[in-house]
Specification:
The protein is built from six helices and nine strands; from the N terminus they run H-E-E-E-H-H-E-H-E-H-E-E-E-E-H. The strands form three sheets. A five-stranded mixed sheet has the order 5-4-3-8-9. A two-stranded antiparallel ribbon has the order 1-2. Strands 6-7 form a two-stranded antiparallel sheet. By secondary structure, the protein is α/β, with parallel strands linked by helices. It is globular and about 35 Å long. The model is unreliable at about 1-35 (pLDDT under 50). The chain is about 35% helix and about 20% strand.
Amino acid sequence: MQKLLIATLVGATLSALGCSRAEPGQAAPTASAAASPSGPLSAGAPAPDVTFALHNGEKLSLSSLRGKPVVVYFYPKDDTPGCTIEAQEIRDLYTELKATGAVVIGVSTDAADSHRAFAEKHALPFLLASDSSFELAKAFGVPLKNDRTMRVSFVIGTDGRIKRSFPEVTPKGHAAQLLAAISS
């Protein structure tokens, strides 16, 4: 009973901070109409051919990255505890990720200005994409909660297909999971 109470309190706190995920045994959050009803893309599916705005002011087409491994990780909100842990761990393993040839793109519904401040504050060397229209979330089937993307990650192979999907991500330790998925 005490474990359930603690889990409920932690979940409510993380949800209020904008950085949560469903706990095992709990119902998954309901997805907004902007997200795919079938859920996140799974391994073997072709990566969507989407173009998006980056925090540095440039636009990038996912199809232009074919031939390189790509990490696309969705997170709820810039500069919140869980999202910061995840981004810092990816930053700390970025040299190893880049050595595989991978391009790393973090995606949230925050505006480009917020992404620039987040990247600068935490010295994030990878790209951040703004998805305020929910087009990227919809293309990847990422659910939304309160107009924020849920924490879901994808590793896209050099062939442009999803190599690995992480539909429920825990921020701490996720960077190592991404590196292992790219390296395998």
